[in-house]
């Protein structure tokens, strides 16, 4: 609908009065309904990424003989996975809905593909984590011996699917009609993947001895740098929807995420290899930054549905660009 007036000349003749465009929906309602998801989905985004990042760290530690880092990685991944499933199932409202999504695989549905990726990831993490819970003196007897033989291939299979677990949630969000998510569909998977790596490496730095945490530090530094670069690239390519990422609660969350990730990255590079306290502080900063990143993106998407400008203006720009391309 339109309000206000603007004078416009018709050809070279006398001016006419036409309405000024003010974006407003009927009865003051938003063009799109806000997502019905609660904060549990944002927690699910973070915990799923942490599970994926920790699994990669644990698999690397297993292959390089770092037992304490391996233990931290697999137990952390399994705990984060359980939390992720809890947040997802409770938000769905009925636990059987998760089971129902496994009845069919739809390659065109990010939710369907993500459910199958999560289902392929979970058993390997469970087997590897269960081996870590068996006392060392019993690992070479009875069923524990078989479990020990299965743990490495199961863990490696989980690590192979971890990138999908880390990034599919970004694809899931960006394939909705929510402007704050749809407009960043090309960059958001890289932001989430970097965030997952930073959090997984951060957990290893927080809980494992400095002498064993070298791979976790490298993984965390690469992930944090990738997250910062992808996030900045995402902001540069945003249109009008950039406003929701810079203002309000979403803006505060994402500024906090950037500050914590930068601090964690600096600490990882400069002090984490020499100081146990520095490693723990850096790891904690990366974990907190990763969590705030997911909550900030979630909040920005929700906020973008409340103003019709974020729906109408990009649509008109796309139509105008299409007409210009057709006329060339």
From TrEMBL:
Tell me the keywords, alphabetical order.
Cell membrane, Membrane, Transmembrane, Transmembrane helix
Q: How does it sit in the membrane?
A: Multi-pass membrane protein
Q: Which family does it belong to?
A: Belongs to the NrfD family.
The family database entries (Pfam families) matched by this protein are listed as: NrfD (PF03916)
Its taxonomic path starts at: Bacteria, Bacillati, Actinomycetota, Actinomycetes, Pseudonocardiales
Q: Where are the transmembrane segments?
A: 72-89, 109-130
Q: Which gene encodes it?
A: nrfD
Q: What is this protein called?
A: Polysulfide reductase NrfD
Gene3D superfamilies associated with the record:
Formate dehydrogenase/DMSO reductase domain
Subcellular location as annotated:
Cell membrane
